[in-house]
Structures are given as structure tokens and as C-alpha cells.
Amino acid sequence: MPRLNQKGCPTPFLHPKLSRRVAIQAGAVGLLGLGTNHLTALQSLAATGEVAQAAPRARAVIYIFLSGGLGQQDSFDLKPEAPEEIRGEFKPIATRTPGIEICEHLPMLASRSQHWSLLRSLTHSSNDHSAGHLIMLTGRTQLPPGFDPTKPNPTDWPSIAAIAGALTKPRNNLPPAVILPEKLVHNSGRVIPGQLAGVMGPSRDPMLIEASPFDPNAYGAYPEYEFDHQERKRTPTVKRFQAPNLSLPEGFGATRFSHRLELLDHLDAQRRELDENAQTVQLDRHRQDAISMLTDPRVKQAFDVMSADPKMLERYGRNSFGWSLLMARRLVEAGVNLVQVNLGNNETWDTHGNAFPHLRNNLFPPTDRALSALLDDLHSSGLLDSTLIVMAGEFGRTPRISTLPNFYKSSGRDHWGHVQTVFFAGGGTQGGRVVGSTDKNAGYPTSNPQTPEALAATIYRSLGIPQSTHWTDAQSRPHYIYYGEPIAGLF
């Protein structure tokens, strides 16, 4: 637990100041072709304190997060026998696995059910977006001291991505954990809590690849499936999906690049900036990561999804959902241990109204296509067995359909933390399986209820992190990460 001051409030951990020598060593990062928007992400990789060693076998996780909350009754837990005001407009279809049915608008996933399983009984107590994000992104149901729904807080629990970044061994000089294609932001512009390292300190924030520009008035998988929940008249902005620039600066060929001293003449301006702004130590690691990204062709290819083979782009979908999951697959292949993929910013899946046309026409098609392509490629490459895919949101949706005529033309569902369905594939899970169940209205678990703590434990186990593992703060105090048991019945 964090240290408490005399008033009983947690105090943030202190970090040593950056020395000039380390700043000089790190100064080459910006000169190695990384844009300034990615320098901040690289700086977050330098962790202070000690971490426990992970299990010898390196495994990977792709955590797909549906910000806004997907309705279980409209996707993976349909109730066709329920009254009309409960069951909604969608009909179930059979999957490849006898006895398992899912939404008719997910046909590609239905034909691949041998690769995935469903947990239909994950539950927590919050119906609030910000609290729900923190709960599901950290795997901690109890809100932290000083929780602020309007912004990340230094006393927040560390995110699953931050823990994976701190407690798993880097491979190929790559960051262990990455979030893409953007941080989660509310349409007001405030950053949603739960994504960062919190009490672990900002030096352990996971690497953020901001490939998608934020648009407070746009939702979904641009450009093909961009929409507005309230269907207001608007002119879509032209947005470009842009990953880090991993090219060497002009004039720095491979031979010259190998002679690091030749870069020192170019460091003065960046050294001054680092002296003023850098807050962490061990920035030698930034330089190592930057060099790896520049010299390893696998890494460059992982980021450069827009130049992928046209047939591959077509399989994943030429939209931000497809590009994001393609990048996630390539990063896992290159050696990243955990990739969190935010499928939609601005609480894209918050379907209070116009839910059925927007799910049918804008949200399910790109998700169905991209996730199916990801399953196919990981399976064909032999990586699905060692790569766990998890897909969840901050909560489910209310059993009863509601209407808000002042804002929406048609009906939808409201927030519902009591139950949601979580999608699993790979990582040793058994395909074609359903764990847990809900009542006749998909409102509450009726068997095998599971918690966010169990979800986090499942992810940590899939990463090969032992249950005894802890991280150590600046005062050398241990903090354990398992607050539940891995979900039984999936493996």
C-alpha cells in the first residue's frame, strides 16, 4: 500500500533528478528519427526501483478494450426468449461450436468459434464510465484512495499494462507493454483514469503509440465506419492513421549511425530540454530502445501497417480498427509482451441510443473482420497458443431497452456493471467454450461469477508472471499484483 502522510492521505513516490550525463546519453533519441510526440512515450519506459523476475517462458497478451461498454444481450449473450423490451432487435446465429450462439452481425467470428471462448459472468459494482475504466484496466474493483473520475491520479492503482511493462522481461530491446492507437479521452478532452501506472510512478507508464488523432465529435473506425451517436450534422475530418517515424535522419547512414560520437555535436538543444523537463532516470534504456526500433527491420515493419500488402489490409479492414489489430499482431510477433488496443475512443461503444443501427452498421462489421483476421494470422503462424486475446469494456448494458428522445432517434441501453461478457482466445484457453451464465434477461450472473481481479490474474498468468511476483517502490516496499485467482474453466 502507498505511504500515508499525517492526514492519512497517500503520498506520491519521489524519484531522483536526471543527471546531465544521463541526459546527454539520452539526447540522441530525438535525433534517431522519433518524433517528439513519441519521445514522451519512450521516456516513460525508464522504471525506477526493482522488479521481480518473470517466469522464463515469454508469453504475450493482446487486451482489446471497448471503451463505452458493449451490451452483452446484443453480442455474445443474446436472450431470444426474453420480452421484446429486453431481447432487442438482433437475432442469434449458430457458431461452429454446437450449442453456442452469438449475434447475427458477427458471422466471421461465429465461423471461428473453435478458437475462442466466452466468459458470460464477469461482474463489478460500478455503472460509472471513469470508475469502470479504472476497474477493468487495473483489475481492481475497489476504487483507490483519492480517486478522481475526471483525470488520472498519482494514487490510482497501476494499470494492467503498466504492471506488464514493469514485471515482464523486455525482448529484442522492445518495450514490454504498449498501448495503441491512442489514449482514452472523453469528448470533453479529459483523459480517462486507469490507463497509467498510478502509484508506481510516471516512469512506469506504458508506452503509448498515438497513431490516431483525437476528434471529440467522432466515434468508431474511421474513415469507413466513423459515426456520431446522436447523428448530428457534421463534416467528418480527414484523419490519418500515423505510427512513429522510424527512419534515420537524413545524412545518418548505417555506417555513420554506428559511430555514436558523431551525434554529440547535435545534442545541445535537446540536452537543455531534457535538463528542464526529464523526470526519470535510466534514460540509457530510451536510447537502446530507439536504436533497436531503427535498426531492426521487424520493428519498423510492425509499425508501418499502412504499407502492408493490400490483401492483408483488406482482410483486416481499411480502418482504424483493422490497422490497430494488425499493428498489435506485428508487435507481438516482434517481441512486445502486452499490447492494449483501444477499439474506439471517446467512449465509442456507449450506445444509449440508436444502438441497434450503430452496432449493426458501424461497430460490429469492422470488429468482426479485424478480430477474425487476427485470429487467423496468429493461428497460422503458430502464435495463438502463446498469445492470449482478451476483449472487454468497462461494463455491460442494461437488460431493459431505454429511450432518450431528446438526444437519440431510437432506443439503446444504459450502463450496467453487474455483468458483461468477456471474449477470450488463445494463450492456452480452450476454444468453443462458455464459462458462467446469466439470468433470463442477461442482467446478473447465475453461475460462476468472476471479478476484474480474476481477469487480471488470468492475464498475468498468461504472461508467465508468478503469483508471488511484486514490484518495489522507491522506498523498497513490495507491492503484490495478484488479487484474485485465474479464471477456472478457460484453460
From TrEMBL:
It comes from the Bacteria. This is DUF1501 domain-containing protein. It comes from Singulisphaera acidiphila (strain ATCC BAA-1392 / DSM 18658 / VKM B-2454 / MOB10).
